[in-house]
Amino acid sequence: MALTPFFFTSCDDEEVDDDIINNLREADLFTSSNTSGEIMTFDFSDKDNITSFKNTVPYADADGIYYDDSGDVFFQINRTDNRVEAFEEFKKAGEGASITPTFSSPAGEFTNGRGLAFSRNRVIVAQDGNDDNGNENKIVVYDYDDDDGFTLRSTHTVDFNLWGIFAEDDDVYAVIDNSSEIAYFDEFYDLEEGAVTPTKVVSIEGLVRTHGIHFSEVQGERVILTDVGDADSDSDGAIIVIEDFDDKVNDAAQNGVIALSDQVRFAGSNTFLGNPVDVEYDHITDRIYVAERKTDGGLLLVFDVDDNENGGNVTPMYNANVAGISSVALDLGL
User: Fold this and answer.
1) Are 191 and 185 in contact (CB under 8 A)?
2) Over the chain, what is the mean pLDDT?
């Protein structure tokens, strides 16, 4: 497979260094839920002794999350009240604590929020159009300050449904829901308010309906996508890995296609993938973390891709029930 180098370090010395780094860090994984009002924390620093605990928040329905390790701030979309919440000193709250937001964005600046992204102290929310918001799809950007909280920076409308969203410096990658397409915005923060058009839209061959997206610049601009397939099925989901994504986007024509030959795909009955709605990636351990919403009411799935560089019908190295799981976020502890 052309993507085999994606999953391996280049020499034995580097593999040893990665093992040392992994043993020195916390490697926490956080989950959001749209039913329980719980934030789960999983400690993956020791794969032979994975532990977890929960904190509760004062609303039940939540989606996109992000953890900013530089300030110990946890961001979450509160779908119950249509706000973004910020929990400062998040890790100091303690296991099992009921926590309340330090800052909240004003209610009603978006509804039906799904994906959340963060870069340059800016929080980005993807609003998916539905009947309650007049079927308006928009991207809302907030400046965030740990003294003053959220300040609305800009609002942009798009002519396609949204779900997952990811920001890397000034560039934004957005899932086009109900499709196999990904939208790329170059220098997004320079765009004027109002209707915006992506710099490039590409289709992913073989993908039915994508939701989650994660972009890793650390090792070669790799993108990981989730495919929920038929939303009513708990057995047709998939995870797709694409290497050198920016190069492939640049090489593709507008509305071009990234071929199956440029992908590694995880799918099948052993994967438990039905409706994978969000994804994270750890470049040190080569692990993919997935929020699987359909199977058993919600599962956190972890795939050790280092041992499965060709993808396929792979059994997760770890799975745990997380009721209503809707999003995942990783603190690499570096």
Assistant:
1) yes
2) 91
Q: Select from 99, 86, 90, 89 the least CA-distant residue to 149.
A: 86
Task: Read off the tokens for 325.
Answer: 């799981």
Q: pLDDT above 90 covers what percent of the chain?
A: 81
Positive or negative, the CA dihedral 128, 132, 136, 142 is: negative
- pLDDT at residue 130 tops 90: yes
Query: What span, in angstroms and rounded, lies between the C-alpha atoms of 154 and 191?
Result: 9
Q: What is the pLDDT of residue 249?
A: 85
User: What's the whole-number mean pLDDT along residues 282-296?
Assistant: 94
Residue of 249, 272, 273 lying closest to 262 (CA atoms): 249
**CA nearest neighbour of 205 among 247, 275, 163, 263:** 263
Determine what percent of the chain falls in helix, strand and coil, rounding each to the nearest 5.
Answer: 15, 45, 40
User: 190: closest CA among 172, 173, 166, 170?
Assistant: 170
Do the Cβ atoms of 311 and 241 come closer than 8 Å?
A: yes
Over residues 126-148, mean pLDDT = 97
Q: Which two tokens stand for residue 280?
A: 């994270």
pLDDT at site 252: 83
